[in-house]
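Re-running the complex after MR caught last week's input typo. The corrected sequence lines follow. Everything else is unchanged.
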Amino acid sequence: MSGRPAFTVIVDYGLGNLFSLERAVQHLGFSCGISQDPGEIKNATRLLLPGVGAFGDGMRGLNEKGLVPVLGEWVRSGRPLLGICLGMQLLFSESEEFGRHRGLGWVPGRVVRFQNAEGGGFPAYKVPHVGWSGLEPAPLKDWSEGLLKGIPSGESAYFVHSYYACPEDPADVLAVTHYAQVDYCSAIQRGNVYGTQFHPEKSGSAGLRILKNFLEGP
Amino acid sequence: MKKIRIIPRLDIKGPNLVKGIHLEGLRVLGKPEVFTRKYYEDGADEILYIDSVASLYGRNHLSEIVRKAAENIFIPLIVGGGVRSVEDIRGLLRSGADKIAVNTAALKNPDLIRQAAKSFGSQCVVVSIVAIRRGRGCYECLTDNAREKTGVDAIEWAKKAEALGAGELLVTSVDREGTGSGYETDLLRPICEQAKIPVIAFGGAGTSEHVLDVTRAGVDAVAAASLFHYGVLGIMQNRLGISGEGNFEFLQKKLPIDGLLRKSIRPVSIADLKEYLAQNGVHCRRAKKAEVV
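Corrected-run output:
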């Protein structure tokens, strides 16, 4: 990055608790800040797009703060961006959450809801999916390089979500996770755009490793 | 596949980790950060902090403890005790909490659940239900650290809390708490059968078998205190350098741990408990030891 000091910005668009993510990045020894200011975002060397809650609220938050074109320009510049949880879902073309919503559209695909399943008198799978689930390499992917470098197959990560992303291009899928009778996409990469459905900042040492891979990556 | 979460619960009084029986007779066990670190390294899935006297006196010592924990503990932290308002919740989230447990204030003002879920997302809002048995299949909610009656049926309240926007339920049996006599499955089972949100069981774990039993009542996560704390006390010299409020008699006497424990409590480490559960067909996250970034 042409001599500019490395600085990661956590994009604040009014949804959720960003402090845990900020602390994790700082713990790993990288300088970062939380910002909704287009100027600061434009000058970042890396972006983290976090978020919890509903897809529609997320897009509304980005639109109200005028961040959609800023982020679009940023991604076209080729610098790396990691979407986390709702932040990953927003990268896709559209979501079926409470009606249809257009997403940022940098990764072709859509976001759909888990189906409830009953079993043995209890809901066999609760929605939202809250808790730890395993990550497995997507077909034909190995984790010797990139975002999931050094993560053993089957490693657990911490999830909180009711919806999951279905990328159109299987080549974008880095990891899959099994829940509610589906194998869904839990991590993606498409060029300089990365995403994790789980929370790396809350997934113990494995999560920190993934964040570090992103922060040290190309 | 569903992985049962194992959550050590740390009751905090002033700067210290304490433990009582039926939520009373609090005994100082040591510094919370020593226990927290050990549990993180042993593979705890989350950590639950409750300021056990905060509701009583309207104060909250937790922020500083949470702030310290959040600097180097990267799993979800649930924090509760004396939380009264959306502003209290915001303050604790800012300190590093990921989820906030509310009991007394939610029963007094159920709309707090809705407001909190709207402001921070349901995933932040854990409604803590502290219940005492009043007859067959009948449980009453208590508030103010189990000192005040409410007349509210616990199983009905669980349903209402979910409808208001709770993201999870933390269900405590006062009758079992600290006794090591096993979880109150007659309370937990009906709540699990109706709940579409995760249920965390607390109160009564004395052995690994008790934890195994309660997973069969349909819970999503299991919290325990004595079961883990007394094991840590047995292997760590963290008895020095503590001060502040509470009953120190237990620590000053330096009695052998075994002599003070109820015979019903057989301490176990989180790693060994998970091993035992896995052998019995219950799925848990198995953290790799040592490799802490």
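None of the earlier attempt is carried over here. Chain A has one domain: 8-216. Chain A has a mean pLDDT of 91.
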